[in-house]
Amino acid sequence: MTKNGSDSRSSYAAPASRSARAPRHGFVLVAVLVVIMLASMVVLSLMFHVRAEETATAAGTGSEQAWAAAMSGIYEAMRVAGQTVPGGLDWKDNSEAFRGRLVVDDGSDQWYYSVYAMGEPDQEEMQFGLTDESSKLNLNTATETNFTKLPKMTPYLVQGLLDFLDADSTPRPEGAEQEYYDTLSRPYGVLNRSLSTLDELLLVRGFTPSLLYGEDSNLNFRLDPGENDGDERFPPDNKDGKLDFGLRQYLTISSYDLNEDINRVARIQLVDPKATLPDSGFPPALVQYIAALRRNKTAVAHPADLLEAKGKFKDENGAEVELASGVGKTELPDVLDRLTTTAERRLPGLININTASARVLQTIPEIDEALAESIVAARGGLSPEQRRTPAWLYQEALVNADLFKKVAPHLTARSFQFHLQVIGYGIPSGRFRVLEAIIDLAAPKPTIAYLRDITRLGLPLKIDSVADDRTIASLEPTARTARLRSRSHLPGIRERTRLVSLDYASAAAHNN
Ligand SMILES: [Ca+2]
Ligand SMILES: [Ca+2]
Ligand SMILES: [Ca+2]
Ligand SMILES: [Ca+2]
């Protein structure tokens, strides 16, 4: 996570923050920016040419209204996520709030939005809701070990990525620093810092659009015909009847937790002698234990280390005493929620134990496949109350105290940043706009941390009116319906399509 994750910016506004943070080599930066923009265009353009005809549907009068309807979906997403109680998952799969919601009837069209996300792993259907960024691995804070445990992440890719991100210019054994990028037909500078958008990953050696976006070329979380026919139509796919969502489903640059308890009060510094000792909620044995830790200046890496802990300490008179923390299953949630060992206000890259897929959980070194799967299976039976902190992992006996202490520093039980895609559309005109956004609820006022228009990828889902029972012609996401409706907007599309295809061909060549 970059240090300014709450910045409100679009993918095209990124250059300002980039140049502000990197004073060196201005001209290189400009080159980087151009290439970044090219790269983002490449990703989109390779998808554009599939559905270029549908693009026209979104053009022309009414598209502002569709945009406004889509924005209403983003604000609704902020409201729903913001009002979710600690441990709640109201934002996750919520057709009532996010599917076919009527915004306004302007006399000629009824305007709706639908907010949709990837369904559960191994499920073919998208769901109506948000994806929390904490359910993914934050690539700006991840280590080589974390990356290596993701599918398709070879040492060649991982080391190239780490070189691209790290501040130094010394290549790893299989990595790539500036020397490599200088040999490209269009050379550009390595960032040597955190990424600002996930799409910047496409600048890294070996990271192709196929790797990042998988077979879901139109980013709609659904298996569409061209995505399951091998090389017959774009995109390339393995024709196995399953949709590969690419690395995008596992990676984020946006996740950070706050060093605050569930009441949004700053956590208490466990070993700081100046920090007021917790006076309520903690049992006397624990208060005494914390006092002893402080008096003896004992280092504690993470509050989880208090679990079932014992230690020998000097008391006020210098005599040795043995104390127990008294922290067991009952006390653990409060300890994790209210205590901290770091002064950082933001805690980037923690993984949400309640929402991360088994694949992502396994990026934590101590979590193997069997444990990851039992975590995913166990959380189905938890109450929101239990989900408030990662303590349930220990309470439900999925891990013992020793293992809990190892995994807890990587975990959180909540999310403040959410990814969403939203379509705003009019019935019966069928005009639509599709936006992709990341919202950040960490600050008192929610912000849009990332926003891009992906209308050109085509209609992502069947749109119909589920908000009322009036019979309205529904629209299927096929090129044919779009073509029929949009004939009057078509001139010029064919030429543009050819241009962007050329762009893709030349740019794809430099990242192979
Ligand atoms: Ca580097
Ligand atoms: Ca698709
Ligand atoms: Ca195909
Ligand atoms: Ca496939």
Write the layout of secondary structure elements.
Layout lengths: L13 H8 L4 H33 L4 H21 L11 H4 L2 E5 L4 E7 L14 E2 L4 E2 L5 H5 L6 H11 L12 H5 L26 H5 L37 E2 L3 E3 L9 E2 L14 H12 L14 E5 L5 E5 L7 H7 E2 L5 E3 L2 E2 L5 H4 L7 H10 L13 H4 L5 H7 L3 E2 L4 E11 L4 E9 L6 E7 L25 H8 L6 H18 L2
Parallel strand pairs: 4-5, 7-10, 12-13
Antiparallel strand pairs: 1-2, 2-14, 3-14, 6-11, 8-9, 14-15, 15-16
The site of one calcium ion has 7 residues, from loops.
Distinct ligands, ions and cofactors found in the model: calcium ion
Count of discrete domains:
2
Distance between the termini: 27 Å
Number of strands: 16
Estimate percent helicity.
25-40%
Could you say which overall geometry the principal axes of the C-alpha atoms support?
A: globular
The residue-averaged pLDDT reads: 84
In terms of per-residue confidence, which ranges show pLDDT below 50 for 5 or more consecutive residues? 1-23, 48-58, 466-512
Number of helices: 16
Major pleated sheet: 6 strands, antiparallel
| Backbone structural class | alpha+beta
Q: Strand fraction band?
A: 5-15%
